[in-house]
Amino acid sequence: MMQFEDKRFCQIRTLADRWDVSTDRIYELLTKGVLRPWHPQAKVGAKGLLICVKSVLVVEESGYVELYTVV
Prior knowledge:
The chain is an alpha+beta fold. The chain is built from three helices and three strands.
C-alpha cells in the first residue's frame, strides 16, 4: 500500500479522517487557499475534487502551534 506522503493527490474524506476534522473544515481550507485543489477535468465545484498532497504536507509542517503553559 502506498504511503500518504508518496501520493500526488488525496480525497477530501481521506484528509478529513487523517486530521480528524469534518469535510466542511477541509472545504473551508480549500476556499481560503490553504490547500490546493485538483480536478481531472479542471472543474471547480464538481464531484471528484482532490487535494494536492504536497499542499497537505506543507500545512502539516508549518501549521502546528506549540502551546506553553505559564508556571
